[in-house]
Amino acid sequence: MAVASTSMSSAQAVVLGLVQGPTELLPVSSSAHLRLLPWLARWDHAGLDSELRKAFEVAVHGGAALALLIGQRDLIVAELGELDARRAVVIGLSFLPAAAAGLGLERTIEARLGGPGATAAGLSVGAVAMIVADRRPQLRSRGEATAVDGLALGVAQALALIPGVSRNGATLTAARLRCYTREQANLLSRTVALPVIAGAAALKGRRLKKRGIDSSYARALAIGTVAAFGSTLASQGLIRLIERDRALWPYAAYRLGLAGVVVGRLRK
To answer: What burial letters (b/e) apply to 93-114, b meaning 16+ CB within 10 Å?
Structure first.
């Protein structure tokens, strides 16, 4: 069994973990930031292949998800207390397309769309979709989700495998296209995220165990995960920025600005 090595330092893992928290809670694509920050900062990641980079992303997403489970535990317990067949169908349909796409297409997507140019494109397309979706009326609220809504959220999570699209941004877009209020769209986005993040973490853990990693990369994974947990727990007030009837265009504008920075760098 070959053991993969890494060029990621502990300090770099901390920085990326700290970035994960706020970018996970806002629809600006945490994965895009984890990919683009090392590239823009000219970090030496020559020894870190796409599989290991993705494993690090999944690890810090897992740390963020654990922080949300703790920080939002009262809301989660309340949601579980109201779980019925209809809600179970919605959650199941929101999970299956993402799981199928992850198992069948993740490595292909990583190989072909993992570069900064493709990530900038994902940021831009996602931004435009958010602006269009947020023009829809806010007609639907809590307790109105149907199987069609679950499928729409599932397709959105599958599309979020494309770098830069953003799982949070895609599910918010899907929910707003279905005319949910911004508050309920945010709640739906967070609710359907946890099974997908847990599934991705389990899959990557299995692959890493089979592949083998050296102690320095294992340390970077652990450090990044702890930093992501702490930054997410400390940043949960950001959730209210979207819930309090605020438009999505500022986040779309930020995404387009970041994409512009990447394009400018590529043209140099």
So the answer is: bbbbbbbebbeeebeebbeebe
Beta bridge partners of 180: 140
Closest CA to 58 of 230, 228, 260: 228
DSSP the chain: ---B-----HHHHHHHHHHHHHHHHTTS-HHHHHHHHHHHTT---TT--HHHHHHHHHHHHHHHHHHHHHHTHHHHHHHHHT--HHHHHHHHHHHHHHHHHHHHHHHHHHHHH-SHHHHHHHHHHHHHHHHHHTTS---B-TT---HHHHHHHHHHHHHTTSTTS-HHHHHHHHHHHTTB-HHHHHHHHHHHHHHHHHHHHHHHHHHHHHH-B-HHHHHHHHHHHHHHHHHHHHTGGGHHHHHTT--SHHHHHHHHHHHHHHHHHHH-
Instruction: For 194-216, write each residue's pLDDT tens digit.
Output: 888 777 777 767 776 776 777 77
Query: How many domains, the chain?
Result: 1
Q: What is the CA radius of gyration of the chain?
A: 18
Domain range for residue 191? Answer: 10-267
For residue 138, the cross-strand partners are: none
pTM of the model: 0.87
pLDDT (tens digit per residue) in 21-51: 899 888 999 989 998 999 999 887 655 666 7
Q: Is residue 189 part of a domain?
A: yes
Please answer whether residues 120 and 262 qualify as being in contact, where contact means their C-beta atoms are separated by less than 8 angstroms. yes
Q: Please indicate, yes or no, if residue 2 is contained in any of the structural domains.
A: no
Domain annotation covers residue 3: no
Residue 187 lies in a domain: yes
